[in-house]
């Protein structure tokens, strides 16, 4: 099921939490909303689920309008809200039965649906426990199970791994990836590695606006600046005059700037001109001057840098 969002905004009194955003998500895509605290991720998700009315804008799931066909839309969406609210005094099976009832699952199918969710979400070992006897990771699995009990086409997961330990995070991620094979999934997070590991595509949201949209690779590529190379050199018969080396490096045709980063060890950071690479010219220069390159590293654009640049 595809999702289309057009010119969506949400105001809370005077504050604009979501500011005229538009995007499309194709059937079967796993998309991550990434953004700092207060960016508008949860508000956008609540509007897609129909839980919150937009101030302006339209949301469609295939040919259904979230506003006009809200009952039909709710049957097709599974939602794991932030903080995963659960009835903690209930046993897992009873809670899932209750959720199935609310979601209109046929009585004759409820028992098999619960069994399938318990299996799918790895709850078998714990299924006789009350929710308040479960660890956080298992509670999160119950949250996912309730979101899927009516077999929705779309899953909306608001910060699904918050508060989990690293092992639980990997388990929930794998589960989401499995689910993503057959459903359209939107998940939110403010953790980069999280969306990178789970999602086909990332929407970076900041101050209620979409500031970037693409695969992790696309985003890195878009943010890529000029080539930056760090080197360390040593002279054949002793030291190197670092000021002279800096001048010779700066004179190379492809080089824009050279910084001495370690005078004692002859460390330099060399930035090339746009679209140019200086690695070969640096190598040739060192050979000409009888210098050994003892270290050469390229500085890769990290997704963290992209995120910081776009949301700072
Ligand atoms: N019910 C509300 N009433 C008033 N303001 C709200 C309400 N809910 C959210 N906001 C405000 O709207 C903005 C966006 O909040 P939202 O919860 O959508 O952000 P978020 O990206 O999900 O943040 P987080 O990662 O911290 O959960 C914030 O400034 C928040 O304070």
Automatic annotation (TrEMBL):
Keywords: ATP-binding, Nucleotide-binding, Transport. Residues 3-232 form the ABC transporter domain. One of its GO terms (molecular function) is ATP binding. The keyword ATP-binding applies. PANTHER family: ABC TRANSPORTER, ATP-BINDING PROTEIN. Belongs to the ABC transporter superfamily. This is ATP-binding cassette domain-containing protein. It comes from Splendidivirga corallicola.
């Amino acid at each position: 099921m595809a999702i289309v969002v057009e010119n969506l905004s949400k105001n809370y009194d005077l504050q604009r939490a979501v500011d005229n955003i538009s995007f499309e998500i194709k059937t079967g895509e796993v998309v991550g909303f990434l953004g700092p605290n207060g960016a508008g991720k949860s508000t956008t998700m609540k509007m897609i689920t129909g839980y919150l009315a937009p101030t302006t804008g339209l949301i469609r799931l295939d040919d259904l309008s979230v506003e006009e066909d809200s009952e039909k839309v709710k049957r097709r969406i599974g939602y794991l809200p932030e903080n995963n609210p659960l009835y903690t005094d209930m046993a897992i099976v009873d809670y899932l039965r209750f959720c199935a009832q609310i979601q209109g699952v046929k009585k004759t199918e409820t028992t098999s649906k619960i069994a399938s969710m318990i299996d799918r979400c790895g709850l078998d070992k714990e299924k006789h426990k009350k929710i308040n006897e479960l660890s956080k990771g298992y509670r999160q699995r119950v949250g996912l199970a309730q979101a899927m009990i009516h077999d929705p086409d779309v899953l909306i997961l608001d910060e699904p791994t918050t508060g989990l330990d690293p092992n639980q995070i990997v388990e929930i991620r794998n589960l989401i990836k499995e689910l993503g094979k057959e459903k359209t999934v939107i998940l939110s997070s403010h953790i980069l590695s999280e969306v990178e590991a789970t999602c086909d595509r990332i929407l970076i949201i900041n101050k209620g606006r979409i500031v970037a949209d693409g695969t992790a690779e696309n985003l890195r590529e878009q943010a890529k600046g000029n080539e930056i190379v760090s080197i360390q050199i040593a002279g054949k018969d002793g030291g190197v005059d670092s000021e002279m080396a800096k001048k010779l490096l700066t004179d190379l045709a492809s080089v824009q700037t050279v910084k001495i980063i370690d005078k004692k060890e002859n460390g330099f950071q060399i930035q090339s001109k746009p679209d140019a690479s200086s690695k070969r010219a640096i190598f040739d220069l060192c050979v000409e001057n009888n210098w050994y390159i003892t270290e050469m590293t390229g500085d890769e654009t990290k997704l963290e840098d992209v995120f910081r640049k776009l949301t700072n």
